[in-house]
Amino acid sequence: MCTLGSIGNCRGPCPVRARRHQPVTTTPEARVGSTTDRTQPHGNESGHHRPGNHIGSERSRMQPAGAPQPVAAPPVETTKLKSTGQGLFTVWHGLTFGGLLRLLAMRPRMHYSRAVRVLSLFFICPFNSLYGMIAPLVYGRKIQQTRITKPPVFILGHWRSGTTLLHNLMTMDDQFTYPNLYHVMYPQHFLLTERVVSKLTAPFLPKTRPMDNMPTGWQLPQEDEVALLIETLRSPYLMVAFPNQRKYYGDTFDIREMPLADQARWKRVLVNFMKKLTVRSDKPIVMKSPSHTFRVATILELFPDARFVYIHRDPYAVFSSSLHLRRTMYMENAFFSPSDENLHEDTLQTLESCLRTYEETRHMIPAGQLVEIRYTDLEKNPVQEMKRVYDELGFEGWERMRPVFEQEAGAMAEYKKNKFVMDPETRRMIHGRVKFFFDKYGYDPQLDDAKAAG
User: Fold this and answer.
1) CA atoms of 287 and 297, how far apart (whole Å)
2) Which residues lie below 8 Å from residue 99, measured CB to CB, with a gap of 6+?
């Protein structure tokens, strides 16, 4: 989700994009999932990077037969989270001063140990307000007149399922454009300030992401959900200020759950942000936010010709890695040090509702506009899987990109994996909630205790 780490969305191995992506051995994450997780050079979800969340007002259609039992926190051995140099820099530094006041009016819990972090916002946020007022004077008419004529591409999948790896691979192709870290952090004024400010501030950026020690940088691909959070404060990533308190963000996963006025504003903000990206570079935009997995219906309403790539992964691995991701993003961006209260249940509810909502809406996507891939297939044979994406979605330039992906495949093979160990009880709990997903995609439930213990 949104730590600068996640925010500096640079996950999976992407040495071709920048040879600085060198293999890094990371600290094993929370030991709650008997799976392996790749050191994520690209960022946010999959074994290759990224955040977790869930629909708050769960509709009955999302409930499996019988009310699910709350998830008691399983016995989990966790590694102490380390600071990676993010320091004062948080996702909240992208807010305008008005946005900061609206956030504070919601009364997030604070602790004196984070006082300097909070005070720093009062120096940075006015800058965003000032340039946020100037930028429309310079670019407003051009943005208003811009039309998004090239079908955008939306990468879907639960956090830690491989969406960032896929995002980084696709954006190696310069026929596409994409939102980078600077764009999503400063959506109000990036057209005006990026060229100068990004260079001046680059030395002050954290060098690595908190969750996996992968490199960060202003120009690297990033989740557009960060921009939506900053512009609207109506995003699942509001959980960073209110950890595991779904009443603050529960209706923001599936936009259809929001009040109508909030829906309309959210749509305007997304379209306007994409228009700004088009002004900067008139190419098909590759968008990646796991939250969009809940929003297929809304995205098709706005962009009927949009292309979608859905990536999925073993739910046990996703759950384990999502726990670590949440703990990390809270540590780096919250105004206090939260406990694990509600963490496991909220993470599992997010996983369940994400998978269910996608299955209930995927039929809305017209033929020829969707391709689905398995994370392990992409990891083992990225060239073959990327060719399938190009072929099925009708993208040009495969022969030009083949050697790029072949080079990346060699770099990916060098990355080491983290180990997760999940107790049988937790395994059964997860399987009970998302059995439909195991059945459809053929994942091994591994419910035999002896097998799980091994």
Assistant:
1) 16
2) 125, 128, 230, 231, 233
Burial class (CB in 10 A: 0-12, 13-18, 19+), 377: middle
Q: Look at residues 445, 175, 159, 202 and name the one whose alpha carbon lies nearest to residue 289.
A: 159
Are 186 and 94 in contact by the 8 Å Cβ rule? The answer is yes
Residue 355 CA: distances (Å) to CA of 157, 313, 315, 438: 8, 11, 10, 11
Predicted local confidence at residue 172, as pLDDT: 96
Handedness of CA 195, 223, 254, 336 (dihedral sign): negative
Cα dihedral sign, 431-433-439-443: negative
236-249 core/surface letters (b: 16 or more CB in 10 A; e: else): bbbbbbbbbbbebb
pLDDT at 355 over 50: yes
Domains of the chain, CATH where assigned:
4-85+151-181+202-257+284-453 (3.40.50.300)
**Closest by CA position to 445, among listed 35, 121, 169:** 35
**For 192-214, what is the mean pLDDT?**
77
**Cβ-contact 164, 296 below 8 angstroms:** no
- Separation of alpha carbons 449 and 5, rounded Å: 36
Spatial contact of 377 and 86, defined as CB atoms under 8 Å apart: no
Angstrom distance (rounded) from CA 43 to CA 109: 28
What's the rounded Cα separation, in Å, for the pair 212 and 28?
Answer: 9
Number of other residues whose CB lies within 10 A of the CB of residue 262: 15
Distance CA 97, CA 91 (A): 14
Q: How many angstroms separate the CA atoms of 214 and 193, rounded?
A: 26
Task: Please give the backbone phi and psi of residue 11, each rounded to the nearest 5 degrees, phi first.
Answer: -90, -95
Q: Which span out of 10-19, 214-223, 371-380 was modeled with the highest average pLDDT?
A: 371-380
3-state helix, strand, coil in the chain (%, to 5): 50, 5, 40
Distance CA 322, CA 29 (A): 10
- Residue type, position 412, single letter: M
Give yes or no for a contact between 315 and 434, defined as CB atoms under 8 angstroms apart. yes
- Top pLDDT among 122 and 86 is at 122
Return d(Cα 55, Cα 58) in angstroms, integer: 6
User: What is the mean predicted confidence (pLDDT) over 65-92?
Assistant: 53
Whole-number Å distance between alpha carbons of 274 and 91: 20
CA gap 154, 199 in Å, rounded: 29
